[in-house]
């Protein structure tokens, strides 16, 4: 019989297709959250294949799957679910609360919290979004153990102080290294105003995915000579797998000062200063003559004028935030585009910030082996500034003015005849405008040689360009010409080229190795220019070219480079024994010829005891890990030319020349910090976890200017001498209190202790004295050093002080004296907190969400260096705080306020009279929101609509009676307040829209 092979092949083909079809099933399913609401955009994958589907607006999906297959369902923020394929599938997802699987960014790579042997604190976008603050750092306060974040004062652009595990230096840089998507950021303060600006105010919180703070040497040593103060790694958002998403957020808020002080009104002012004049000069004539001048023709005897100068310095603030983002991803391409606008009208008169930002993040899988991408961002921040705290024309110094003085004249112009310069003359006739433009960008490529080995190359760029324009009209106080204009321009730019290999391999199911090795080159350039012109025809001319004479100008250029090699190896055995080592070798042009290069190693180990057989089956203990690390880091923030022998220009009679300005030190190098960390992580019932760390870091080779003999031609030389030691404990507790379909409640609590002590100083441990502070061996760094106030003599109203002279037995003589000069200074307080804590609670119930954070600090003191003017029993005519009404008046009076004596100097010297504890607890932020049910949104084509009310600095509990326990003077000094503005209390209403 003849066989028709064509027919046979056709028959077999149809048979095979039918058989294959019979082995596949069409799966129809629905994906919902724990409350039963549909989840659109969830990803459904047939395990082991590339077959994928996505849920629609109602959570439904359809997918073809082989019989017996497993479906993997994923959605951001939810636990991954695996279910068997069946004709009908319903998947109920739960929130992902497994913090052990949290991904930590550790520099040139990532790790999971479970396998980490480092001390890394992390916050995500959920922790910082919808908090109405202008700066990223402000949103982090109270959320990170071991990290103290303080804004200098309440000005919108105010400088930020960030301390990771206490100070690691006295005279070099103290701020951490900031790394944005692998780019070490320029954070130089370029303000000519006298008060610092915050360079990171150019970043918008809406574009940030997470922030990881590397606190110990094991994590930060990969950044070598720049890691001693900690490293803050900022990661921006990327597209998530699924259909494209569009998000729009808008909020508006109002602000006011957290606290205002009470000052004498007109009646109290006349009463106190009349009495002070009689006590100090013998009659009331001195006071009355001054009252006549201050009143400027008004009837002060009948209190015609009662000016509230503090009220003019503050204003109601307003905030507007708007941002949008478009994001998405498929198997090959991820994209994220975002833009944001912020306008913050500050609580200080004429202080305002306006910022626009834009970001593009995109990556593409070119082939199975090669991928590439680009991150690019731009921001422009325009700031209307006021003068620094030490300037007479800064708004808050207006509180020194007499309430008898009219604030403005009848024609509306500022009163020019006040006790001190009327700051409103500056507000009306000048401006200080700062514009910060920032561009950051990175292009990168990644090539996989084999699945376990890849090579990454990144080229990054960071430009911070800043201009400042200061116009002063002819009516500005202290103006000696017909107007003056100052204009400056500075460009800071950094180029970073990084190349590194990453090897990640598991052998025999028990041995896992992750290794990174590479090089990095960093080139920084700075160019600065300024010019001043004077003599303007009238106040309508407000730029340099309007002046008749350009009378000043300066300019300079500088640069530095870093050339680095780095490597890191992590090893785990059986998922329970963990080892890690890293090393970085840095070379920099900043250091002396004999010390151009330094090597920074670190080692760490961990033991996951809960994986051992004797604990693995525990129904109570869900996780237990012991860990320890040691490493060395550097602090390279010593300036570009500290090691060089320098000469500068000098001129005389129109002849130019050179003068010797600085002695060189070819051995000068970075400050070195050795750090030890011991800790454990423990979890119970998958609901409670505790992280504990003990740390000790010793910084050797502190940079100081050491005196030289006059015969050398220079007065000082920079040397690496001195030792500083910081130590403390950190606890972080996370709990899931309730986790049901309707209600979820979680709590996070952190507490940190810190002691920073000076161990060695130059010149045979000679004390280093500041105006109010001291650095002394075995004392806390920059401790307060003051004469000790002893109250008031009840017999005569004299201010008293403790002698504190050293007696023969070594004790201090606590005899009191009214002779200020006879008393000795003693160490009497710490400008830095010794205990810090943060408590965050988050609750979700049937579409409602509620969260709040409390922050607390204890152990720090503040010295009010303005107290010698504003709280000294009417020693001069500055307006006084109301507590000065409690002055001594009659023999036998018991009070802490001396007798009022005009010009008497009764207790006006610097002393502990003006030193106070700054302990506080603050409701840092609170947010209450409601999300519309997803079933309501389906017909609108939206995935989420949420309205919320958010607040910052709502409540403060403190015994400190100054403006604020966190406010500090912004021109100089450590731990001082000097007419320093409190932070803003802000309440904002907003809406989130997602499509």
Question: In terms of topology, how is this protein built?
Answer:
Layout: H1 5-22, E1 24-32, E2 43-46, E3 52-54, E4 60-66, E5 70-74, E6 81-84, E7 88-92, E8 103-105, E9 110-112, E10 120-124, H2 125-128, E11 147-151, E12 160-164, E13 177-180, E14 183-184, E15 208-214, H3 217-220, E16 231-236, E17 242-257, H4 266-281, H5 285-295, H6 309-313, E18 317-329, E19 333-345, E20 352-365, E21 370-385, H7 423-429, E22 430-450, E23 453-472, E24 484-507, E25 511-534, E26 549-573, E27 577-588, E28 597-608, H8 613-616, E29 621-635, E30 646-652, E31 655-662, E32 671-684, E33 688-700, E34 703-707, E35 716-720, E36 723-739, E37 743-753, E38 755-760, H9 762-765, E39 768-769, E40 773-775, E41 783-787, E42 789-792, E43 799-802, E44 816-817, E45 825-829, E46 835-845, E47 848-858, E48 861-864, H10 867-870, E49 915-917, E50 920-931, H11 934-937, E51 944-958, E52 976-977, E53 984-994
Parallel strand pairs: 1-7, 13-16, 48-52
Antiparallel strand pairs: 1-4, 2-3, 2-5, 5-6, 8-9, 10-15, 11-12, 13-14, 15-16, 17-18, 17-53, 18-19, 19-20, 20-21, 21-22, 22-23, 23-24, 24-25, 25-26, 26-27, 27-28, 28-29, 29-32, 30-31, 32-33, 33-36, 34-35, 36-37, 36-38, 37-46, 39-40, 40-41, 41-45, 42-43, 43-44, 46-47, 47-50, 48-49, 50-51, 51-53
Membrane topology: Multi-pass membrane protein
Subcellular location: Cell outer membrane
Domain TonB-dependent receptor plug: 113-231
């Amino acid at each position: 019989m003849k066989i028709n092979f064509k027919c046979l092949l056709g028959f077999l083909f149809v048979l095979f297709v039918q058989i294959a079809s019979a082995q596949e099933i069409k799966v129809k399913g629905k994906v919902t959250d724990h409350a039963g609401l549909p989840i659109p955009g969830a990803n459904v994958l047939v395990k082991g294949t590339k077959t994928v589907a996505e849920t629609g607006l109602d959570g439904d999906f359809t997918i073809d799957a082989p019989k017996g297959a497993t479906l993997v369902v994923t959605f951001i923020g939810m636990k991954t679910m695996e279910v068997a394929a069946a004709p009908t599938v319903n998947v109920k997802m739960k929130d992902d609360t497994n913090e052990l699987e949290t991904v930590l960014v550790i520099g040139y790579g990532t790790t999971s919290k479970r396998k980490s042997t480092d001390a890394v604190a992390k916050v995500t976008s959920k922790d910082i979004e919808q908090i109405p603050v202008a700066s990223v750092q402000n949103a982090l306060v109270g959320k990170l153990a071991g990290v103290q974040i303080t804004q200098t004062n309440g000005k919108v652009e105010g400088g930020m102080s960030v301390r990771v595990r206490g100070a690691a230096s006295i005279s070099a840089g103290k701020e951490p290294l900031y790394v944005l998507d692998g780019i070490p950021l320029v954070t130089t303060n370029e303000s000519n105003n006298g008060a610092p600006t915050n360079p990171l105010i150019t970043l918008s919180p809406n574009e940030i995915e997470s922030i990881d703070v590397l606190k110990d040497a094991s994590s930060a040593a990969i950044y070598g000579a720049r890691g001693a103060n900690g490293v803050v790694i900022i990661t921006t958002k990327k597209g998530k797998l699924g259909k494209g998403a569009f998000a729009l957020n808008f909020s508006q808020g109002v602000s006011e000062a957290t606290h205002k002080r009470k000052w004498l009104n007109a009646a109290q002012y006349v009463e106190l200063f009349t009495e002070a004049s009689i006590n100090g000069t013998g009659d009331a004539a001195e006071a009355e003559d001054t009252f006549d001048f201050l009143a400027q023709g008004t009837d002060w005897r009948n209190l015609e004028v009662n000016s509230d100068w503090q009220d003019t310095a503050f204003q109601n603030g307003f905030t507007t935030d708007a941002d949008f983002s478009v994001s998405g991803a498929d198997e090959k391409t991820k994209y994220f585009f975002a833009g944001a606008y912020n306008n913050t009208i500050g609580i200080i008169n004429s202080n305002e910030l306006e910022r626009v930002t834009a970001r593009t993040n995109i990556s593409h899988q070119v082939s199975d082996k090669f991928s590439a991408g680009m991150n690019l961002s731009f921001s422009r921040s325009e700031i209307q500034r006021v003068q620094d705290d030490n300037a007479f024309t800064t708004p808050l110094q207006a509180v020194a003015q007499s309430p008898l003085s009219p604030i403005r004249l009848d024609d509306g112009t500022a009163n020019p005849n006040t006790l001190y310069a009327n700051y409103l003359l500056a507000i009306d006739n000048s401006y200080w405008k700062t514009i910060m433009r920032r561009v950051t960008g990175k292009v990168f490529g990644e090539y996989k040689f084999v699945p376990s080995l890849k090579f990454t190359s990144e080229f990054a760029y960071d430009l911070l360009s800043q201009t400042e324009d200061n116009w002063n009209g002819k009516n500005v106080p202290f103006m000696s010409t017909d107007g003056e204009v100052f204009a400056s321009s500075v460009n800071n730019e950094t180029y970073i080229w990084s190349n590194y290999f990453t090897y990640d391999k598991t052998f025999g199911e028990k041995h896992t190795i992750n290794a990174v090795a590479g090089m990095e080159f960093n080139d920084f350039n700075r160019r600065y220019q300024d010019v001043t012109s004077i003599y303007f025809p009238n106040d309508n001319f407000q730029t340099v070219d309007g002046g008749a004479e350009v009378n000043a100008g300066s300019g300079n250029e500088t640069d530095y480079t870093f050339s680095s090699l780095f490597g890191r190896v992590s090893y785990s055995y059986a998922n329970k024994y963990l080892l890690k080592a890293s090393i970085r070798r840095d070379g920099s042009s900043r250091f002396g010829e004999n010390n151009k290069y330094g090597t920074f190693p670190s080692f760490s180990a961990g033991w996951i005891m809960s994986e051992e057989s004797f604990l693995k089956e525990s129904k109570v203990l869900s996780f237990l890990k012991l860990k320890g690390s040691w490493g060395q880091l550097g602090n390279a923030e010593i300036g570009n030319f500290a090691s060089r022998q320098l000469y500068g220009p000098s001129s005389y009679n129109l002849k130019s020349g050179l003068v010797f300005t600085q002695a060189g030190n070819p051995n000068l190098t970075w400050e070195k910090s050795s750090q030890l960390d011991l800790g454990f992580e423990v979890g119970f019932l998958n609901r409670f976890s505790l992280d504990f760390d003990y740390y000790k870091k010793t910084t050797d080779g502190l940079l100081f200017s050491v005196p030289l003999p006059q015969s050398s031609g220079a007065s000082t030389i920079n040397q690496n001498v001195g030792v500083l030691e910081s130590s403390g404990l950190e606890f972080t507790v996370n709990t899931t209190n309730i986790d049901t379909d309707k209600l979820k409640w979680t709590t996070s609590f952190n507490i940190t202790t810190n002691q920073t002590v000076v161990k060695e100083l130059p010149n045979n441990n000679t004390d280093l004295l500041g105006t109010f502070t001291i650095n002394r061996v075995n004392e806390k760094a920059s401790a307060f050093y003051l004469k000790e106030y002893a109250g008031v003599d009840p017999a005569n109203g004299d201010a008293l002080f403790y002698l504190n002279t050293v007696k023969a037995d070594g004790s201090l003589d606590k005899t009191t004296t009214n002779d200020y000069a006879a008393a000795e200074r003693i160490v009497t307080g710490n400008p830095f907190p010794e205990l810090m804590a943060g408590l965050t609670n988050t609750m979700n119930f049937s579409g409602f969400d509620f969260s709040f954070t409390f922050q607390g600090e204890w152990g720090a003191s503040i010295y009010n260096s303005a107290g010698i003017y504003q709280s000294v029993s009417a020693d001069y005519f500055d307006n006084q705080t109301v507590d000065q009404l409690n002055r001594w008046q009659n023999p036998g009076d018991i009070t802490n306020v001396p007798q009022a004596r005009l010009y008497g100097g009764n207790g006006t010297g610097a002393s502990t009279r003006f030193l106070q504890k700054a302990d506080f607890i603050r409701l840092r932020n609170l947010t209450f929101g409601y999300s519309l049910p997803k079933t309501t949104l389906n017909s609108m084509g939206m995935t989420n609509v949420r309205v919320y009310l958010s607040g910052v600095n709502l409540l403060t509990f403190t015994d400190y009676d100054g403006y604020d326990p966190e406010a500090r003077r912004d021109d100089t000094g450590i731990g001082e307040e000097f007419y320093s503005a409190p932070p803003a209390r802000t309440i904002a209403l907003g809406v989130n829209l997602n499509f």
